[in-house]
Design brief:
With 376 residues, the protein is of the alpha/beta class. The protein has one domain: Glycosidases (TIM Barrel), CATH 3.20.20. 32% of the residues lie in helices and 18% in strands. The mean pLDDT is 97.
C-alpha cells in the first residue's frame, strides 16, 4: 500500500506597506504610502521591466473589501497561511492597519490562517534610500523583558485569541526577523529561555497555548544558540543571492541553486528548517533615480549597500514553479520535519517579489503554487 505523502502548509509573507498610516503621513506627507515608489520606478538597463503594473491597481489593503479579494485569491490557489510582517517599537506600532482593519475585518478571513513575523529591525527612511549617506532613523528597535511582555500581551488580546491564528502542534507560531539581535539584547540564550518559559506561563493564565518561536536565518551557525534559547524552527525571509555579473545582474537559475544549497545546509541543523521559495528580487524602486546603473559601491562603506545592489533577472512563473517543485521534493524526501514552505512574497512590490497579479504575469505565479501543491 502506497504511503500518502504529507502536504506542507504554504505560508506566504505579507508586507503591509500598501496603505497610508499616520506615521507615513507625518514622515512623507499626507496620504503617502509606498505605492508612490512603485508608480515612479524607472528602468535601469535595457530590458529592465519597471515600473510594475499591478493588475488590481494601487489599492488600499487596509480596506476589508480589498482584503476579502486577497483572501479569496490566496485560498483558491493553495496558500494556507499569511505571515504578516509586524512592526512594534517599544509600544509604537506602524502599518498594523493592513492586518487589523483589512484582514481581520474581512468577512471571509476564516478561509486563511494568519501569523506574525516581528520585523524587529530599525525603521528608517529608505523611500528612496539616500545613496552614500546615513539613513534618517525614524524608529530604532530595542529589546528588554518588559517590552517583550507588552508585545505578548498585545498579541494575546488582538491576535492569539483568534480561531484562525496559526498553530503548530498546538503552539502559536511567532517568527522573529532578527533572532540573534533579539537574544543578544535580552541577555543571552539562558536568560531568553527563562523569559520564554515565563511568557508561556503568562499565556496559560489567559487560557492560551504556548508559543512556537521561529527564527529567520540565512546561515546555519546561530541555530544551536537559538535552540538553547527556546526557539523551535527556522526559515528564511527570502533567498536572492547568486552569481553576480559585472553589470550587477543575477540569473534566476543561479538563485534557484542558492535555494537548494541553503536548504541542504539548514536541514543538518538541530531545528526544523522550513524551506523558502522566492519569486524575485529588484529593489531599484527604493533607489534614487539619478544614481546610474550599475550601482557603484557606497562611499560610506566601500560596499554595495541595500538597496543599491544586484537585480535578479529571468525569473518567470515557469522557473518559479520548478523551484516550488524542488521544495516539495526536498520536504518529501529529505526534510520530513519541515511542516511548512515559506513563500516570499505575497506583495513585496518594491523588492520585486510578488504573487498578486501583475500585468505581465497575471495569475501565473499563484497558479504555479496551485499546480505544485494543490489546495486543502
Amino acid at each position: 500500500m502506497k504511503t500518502r505523502v504529507r502536504r506542507p502548509e504554504i505560508m506566504a509573507i505579507y508586507c503591509p506597506l500598501w496603505h497610508n498610516y499616520p506615521h507615513a503621513s507625518s514622515w512623507k506627507g499626507y496620504g503617502w504610502c509606498e505605492w508612490e515608489l512603485v508608480k515612479s520606478a524607472v528602468p535601469r538597463f535595457p530590458g529592465h521591466y519597471q515600473p510594475l503594473q499591478p493588475s488590481w491597481g494601487f489599492f488600499d489593503e487596509s480596506d476589508p473589501a480589498w482584503a476579502e479579494r486577497e483572501i479569496q485569491l490566496a485560498s483558491e490557489h493553495g496558500i494556507d497561511v499569511m505571515l504578516f510582517d509586524w512592526y512594534w517599537y517599544s509600544g509604537v506600532r506602524i502599518m498594523e492597519e493592513a492586518l487589523e482593519n483589512g484582514f481581520l475585518r474581512a468577512r471571509n478571513n476564516k478561509r486563511l490562517q494568519f501569523a506574525l513575523m516581528w520585523a524587529n529591525h530599525d525603521w528608517a527612511d529608505y523611500f528612496p534610500a539616500p545613496f552614500g549617506k546615513p539613513w534618517n532613523m525614524w524608529l530604532p528597535s530595542r529589546h528588554c523583558p518588559q517590552d517583550l511582555e507588552q508585545v505578548i500581551d498585545y498579541c494575546a488580546d488582538h491576535y492569539f485569541k483568534r480561531s484562525n491564528y496559526w498553530k503548530v502542534k498546538n503552539r502559536l507560531f511567532f517568527s522573529i526577523f532578527q533572532p540573534v539581535k533579539f537574544v543578544d539584547e535580552l541577555g543571552g540564550a539562558s536568560k531568553v529561555k527563562r523569559l520564554l518559559a515565563k511568557i508561556d506561563r503568562r499565556l496559560r493564565s489567559k487560557d492560551l497555548p504556548p508559543i512556537h518561536w521561529n527564527a529567520m536565518l540565512w546561515v546555519p551557525e546561530p541555530v544551536a544558540m537559538l535552540k538553547e534559547a527556546g526557539f523551535h524552527s527556522t526559515t528564511s525571509y527570502n533567498i536572492v543571492s547568486g552569481a553576480v555579473s559585472p553589470d550587477l545582474l543575477v540569473n534566476y537559475e543561479s538563485v534557484m541553486e542558492s535555494h537548494q544549497t541553503l536548504w541542504h545546509k539548514m536541514k543538518k541543523t538541530s531545528l526544523p528548517y522550513l524551506p523558502t521559495v522566492t519569486v524575485g528580487w529588484d529593489v531599484t524602486p527604493r533607489c534614487e533615480k539619478d544614481i546610474k546603473w550599475p550601482f557603484p559601491p557606497s562611499p560610506l562603506t566601500g560596499n554595495l549597500d541595500y538597496p543599491y545592489v544586484h537585480v535578479v533577472c529571468g525569473n518567470t512563473p515557469e522557473r518559479f514553479q520548478e523551484l516550488c517543485e524542488n521544495a516539495k521534493r526536498h520536504v518529501e524526501q529529505e526534510a520530513p520535519h519541515a511542516f511548512a514552505i515559506t513563500v516570499n512574497a505575497w506583495n513585496e512590490w518594491t523588492e520585486g517579489s510578488y504573487l498578486l497579479p501583475e500585468k505581465r504575469t497575471d495569475l501565473a505565479y499563484l497558479e504555479a503554487i496551485q499546480k505544485t501543491f494543490g489546495t486543502r
